[in-house]
Write a structure and sequence with these properties.
Length: 194
């Protein structure tokens, strides 16, 4: 029995190995820091392990895995959002704080020094701008423009109507464009004054 369980676990690891880089990157883009990424991936793997028989090697399971990861993220967010013990001074990726702005500011400040040094200055600035979007806009922008999912795929993954996703994506891109323009104007002004 123990040997069979070990074989099942090894089979699961082998099956998941080609997808783990994608899962880890997507989880990091959803959470914004390594600690919460690890927690999310762990919950995802716990959720997916009993369903490993649903994997069909002949089909592309990446969108299905992404959907499960996204749903796991939302489940954790809802649990902690409704948790009365979650305090404003202990904000985490699950959005316990009702203010997106404070939550996103916290995410940008929770990157560990190793993560910050691994990112170029431009990447750091883009990440900060990305996390200045509200969560709905940030998620659709990450999933569509960074992860490369089509809007029809995202309707299935996120359980959101196509029109709503288009609207969120449009607003997210506009806000990012405005933020980038504001940052450029600010930078140009500093250079002119300096």
């Amino acid at each position: 029995m123990i040997k069979n369980h070990k074989n099942n676990a090894n089979d699961f690891i082998t099956l998941m190995q080609p997808y783990m880089r994608h899962i880890n990157h997507t989880a990091f883009r959803l959470t914004g820091n390594m600690h919460d990424t690890e927690d999310l991936v762990q919950e995802f793997l716990i959720k997916i392990y009993p369903r490993k028989e649903q994997f069909n090697q002949g089909q592309n399971i990446k969108p299905w895995l992404t959907k499960v990861l996204y749903n796991t993220y939302i489940d954790i967010w809802r649990k902690q959002k409704n948790n009365p013990t979650c305090k404003k001074d202990n904000i985490n990726f699950t959005g316990c704080d009702e203010s997106d702005e404070q939550f996103n500011h916290h995410i940008c400040n929770t990157l560990c020094p190793e993560q910050l040094t691994a990112l170029s200055e431009t990447q750091q600035e883009l990440m900060q701008l990305l996390f200045s979007l509200n969560n709905e806009q940030r998620l659709v922008l990450v999933m569509h423009d960074i992860e490369g999912y089509s809007l029809p795929e995202l309707t299935n993954i996120m359980h959101v109507p196509l029109g709503t996703l288009k609207s969120r994506l449009h607003r997210a891109r506009d806000k990012m464009r405005n933020l980038l323009n504001d940052k450029k104007v600010s930078h140009d002004k500093e250079v002119a004054e300096g």
